[in-house]
Design a protein that fits this description.
The complex is a heterodimer of chains A (about 650) and B (about 130). Chain A is of the alpha/beta class and about 650 residues long. Chain A has 23 helices and 18 strands. Chain B has one domain: Cytochrome c-like domain (Cytochrome Bc1 Complex, Chain D, domain 2). In chain B, strand 1 and strand 2 form a beta hairpin. Classes of the chains: A alpha/beta (about 650), B mainly alpha (about 130).
Chain lengths: ~650, ~130
């Protein structure tokens, strides 16, 4: 493996150089060598007679073996990170990146990036995923390029499906003859990125420091260009550890971010015409708002048209109580004559009813003849192996481009087409939608009263109690349990940071560490971060709480403890009913009981404030008050709430 | 996956409509009062996993689709039993092999006995 000009003359694995010195010594003593070679051993000696090299090694001064160096490749790598303004480097420490680790601390001063100690690589990636969705920029993580990356991959897949930039790095020892026996062999690969290539947007294995600088900047650029996604760099250990041999030639290239692509202006004009003439246009959004400007633009579009918006809540796209937010009235799709889907990953799933029966079937849930338009970056980039793109949906117009970036043009086009008559018609439409929204909210409140005092506690009561405690704070909800929709039905979300979407790939174990990453981003803004999360999810990465305590990241984490992997409970019940041979034993392999898990005690074990288990709904309010008080001191807190399933 | 992934809201509406848990008034309800054993119905409701989708209080929930609230059920018992035998979409169809007519009627009685919705205006936490 060529190492170019960075190849050191004092490498820690410089066995080759040692051998060269010995060989030179042998050549310098031809007589002795000849004597030894022509004087075979006598008798049955057990030990071999020293050869010329050994003889030389014993008679010559020791070969050069420096014990210190004044620079390291890792120092330069840290300089690159600082140039990219990377705030954090999440990691579970590992020898394959010990050079970079040390450089971050002693060359970089453990700032930009600051190390986040994570007990599992999946935690590190998920923290980066949650962080990026609040802060709007990527975090880096590093791991062993083999076993650490294997741990990290599920989280990388979640980030991939969620369109979130994460800079993943893995340590490796490229040159086989430089690897020490044992761990360095089993922790090395010729192509570490292979395991993750299906769900990263770009990856590389730099072989020089200049190569690293250019690839790191490129990785950042690629990751943050919509559609965003994780990227990966494999870092050779010697590149990190050994002295910089060519410092005067190294250059960190300038980062020039890609301006997100706007949709074609003619196509947007055509869409504008369709929307203006439509009687009942509906906009479906999922991951539209990638910056704080996104929500404001979407509100302007909806208010200009006075049309319905269905939010799939992949991001904080649209205010929850806005009169045009019809997310819980999806039956309106059956009246829609124009449906515009923006940054919707799996549109087919939003437009079709699927029946999970012995014979699987489906049927559209929108009016036949309705015009369907997509606007987004989904069609601009995808890969084939993992099927996160969903079933192919027929549409009438596909506009490739970043939706948030395209909205100003679309809004402008629409405004040009609206006359007074249209304004009046739109206003009437908006009033009807507002009335329907009001009715839907009242219905939600009425539904929430059912089982209000029940134990286990209903999820509606739980969410109402939490909102009662946080509504006057500057709050940010950054996690939720599966199908826990009450916050979006009952709470007022109207700030860009008050929600950041879900896992993306539905990989369990996302919620706790991703919430912590988001909490880290919120910390600098002084926001109260809270998250709901299922008990099953919690158990995948409970040691996240240690990271929370160690780095003093304030967060209120509420365990939605239904004591089961509940989605699977329902699936198994369906299987048992289908097979007709008993429906009373499906708890086996599903429930998390016997013993019940005490999440508050687990939290305390990691140095985190723990409340619970809360069984009586009357105890919720006081427990929440105590936990919020802890979070306000800058510390994390966990509340274990024993709830009904959903 | 998105949080709501309500693959079809309209299916949920159909199911909710079939249960009509907030349809007829008290008079109609009285006429349809089930003669089943509510106590046994509760036992079966929990043992057979009905609560996993519809909640222990019959408050509803969600699987891949929203599962409607069924507390204070107002569907006639015959319709209820018939519905269970040929439930639509995600809801399992419960044959007599796993759920007798008597048990189904008992569940019906239990659901009718549940208090159901109250006036939301009486709950300060729901008016913030």
């Amino acid at each position: 493996m060529p190492k170019g000009s960075n190849a050191p003359d004092s490498g820690r694995r410089n066995f080759l150089k040692g051998a060269t010195f010995a060989g030179a010594a042998a050549l310098a003593s031809p007589v002795a060598a000849s004597t030894q070679a022509s004087d075979p051993p006598k008798g049955s000696s057990k030990a071999a007679v020293p050869g010329p090299r050994l003889a030389a090694a014993e008679t010559m001064p020791p070969s050069k073996d420096p014990v210190s160096q004044t620079t390291s490749g890792g120092d330069f790598m840290v300089d690159v990170f600082k140039t990219l303004d990377i705030d954090y480097l999440a990691m579970n420490c590992a020898s394959s990146f010990r050079g970079l680790h040390e450089a971050v601390l002693n060359h970089g001063g453990n700032t930009k990036p600051e190390i986040l100690t994570c007990p599992h690589e999946e935690i590190a990636v998920h923290m980066a995923q949650g962080y990026a969705k609040i802060e709007g920029k990527p975090m880096a993580m590093i791991c062993h390029g083999v076993v650490g990356l294997q741990h990290a991959t599920m989280a990388m897949y979640n980030a991939w499906c969620d369109r979130v930039p994460v800079i993943v790095m893995g340590g490796n020892i490229i040159e086989a003859n430089k690897r020490g026996p044992g761990a360095e062999w089993v922790h090395s690969a010729i192509d570490p990125g292979a395991i993750a290539r299906d769900f990263v947007k770009w990856d590389d294995q730099p072989t020089s420091l200049q190569h690293f600088a250019e690839s790191a900047v490129r990785a950042y650029k690629v990751a943050t260009t919509p559609p965003m996604a994780p990227v990966m760099l494999s870092l050779d250990a010697e590149l990190q550890e050994n002295p910089i041999a060519d410092a005067e030639t190294l250059k960190i290239p300038k980062l020039s971010k890609v301006i997100p692509p706007q949709g074609d202006s003619a196509a947007l004009a055509e869409l504008a015409k369709m929307l203006v003439v439509a009687e009942n246009p509906v906009i479906i959004v999922d991951r539209v708002a990638r910056t704080p400007a996104g929500m404001a633009r979407l509100v302007e579009l909806a208010e200009t048209l006075q049309c319905a918006v269905i939010d799939n809540v992949g991001r904080m796209n649209f205010p929850s109580r806005h009169p045009l937010n019809q997310s819980f009235r999806r039956a309106i799709l059956r009246q829609a004559d124009v449906i515009v889907a923006m940054e919707v990953n799996e549109l087919w799933g939003s437009l079709n009813a699927f029946s999970d029966r012995i014979v699987r079937s489906s049927k559209p849930n929108y009016k036949q003849g309705a015009k369907i338009v997509t606007l987004g970056s989904r069609d601009l980039y995808m890969k084939s192996n993992y099927q996160d793109f969903g079933r192919y949906q027929e549409v009438d117009l596909t506009i490739g481009g970043d939706a948030e970036a395209s909205l100003p043009i679309l809004i402008e086009q629409i405004k040009r087409l609206i006359d007074d008559g249209k304004k009046s018609a739109f206003a009437a439409r908006g009033q009807k939608l507002a009335a329907a929204k009001l009715a839907a909210v009242e219905q939600a409140k009425s539904d929430a009263t059912i089982g209000w005092d029940a134990s286990p506690i209903t999820t509606a009561r739980l969410c109402a109690e939490v909102y009662g405690q946080i509504k006057d704070e500057d709050w940010s909800l950054v996690g939720t349990a599966i199908r826990l929709t009450w916050p979006h039905r009952l709470w007022k979300f109207d700030k860009p940071y008050q929600w950041n979407g879900v896992s993306g790939g539905a990989g369990v174990g996302y919620n706790l560490p991703a919430s912590l990453g988001a909490a880290l981003a919120n910390k600098r803004h002084g926001r109260l971060t809270l998250a709901f999360g299922g008990d099953g999810d919690f158990l995948f990465a409970p040691s996240t709480l240690w990271t929370a305590a160690h780095h003093r990241i304030p967060m209120l984490y509420i365990v939605h403890n239904n004591r089961a992997y509940h989605q699977e409970y329902m699936y198994l019940q369906a299987m048992a009913a289908r097979h007709g041979r008993g429906i009373t034993n499906t708890a086996t392999g599903i429930t998390i009981t016997d013993p019940n898990v005490d999440y508050a005690t687990i939290a305390r074990g990691f140095g985190v404030h723990g409340e619970g288990p809360i069984i009586d709904p009357k105890d919720l309010g006081p427990a929440l008050k105590r936990a919020i008080a802890v979070a306000k001191t800058g510390q994390p807190a966990v509340i274990d709430v024993v709830t009904d399933p959903r | 996956m998105n949080l709501f992934t309500m693959r079809s809201a309209y299916v949920a509406v159909l199911v909710a409509g079939a249960f009509a848990a907030h349809g007829p008034g008290p008079a109609a309800l009285a006429q349809e009062r089930s003669s089943g054993d509510a106590a046994n119905g509760k036992r079966v409701y929990l043992a057979d996993g009905c609560f996993t989708c519809h909640g222990r209080a019959g408050q509803g929930g969600a699987m891949n689709y929203p599962a409607p609230a069924i507390a204070k059920l107002e569907m006639p018992v015959e319709s209820f039993v018939s519905f269970l035998r040929d439930a639509p979409n995600d809801m399992p169809a419960y044959s007599t092999d796993v759920l007798s007519d008597k048990e189904a009627a008992d569940i019906h009685a239990y659901l009718q006995s549940l208090p159901g919705r109250k006036q939301a205006k009486d709950f300060p936490l729901l008016n913030q």
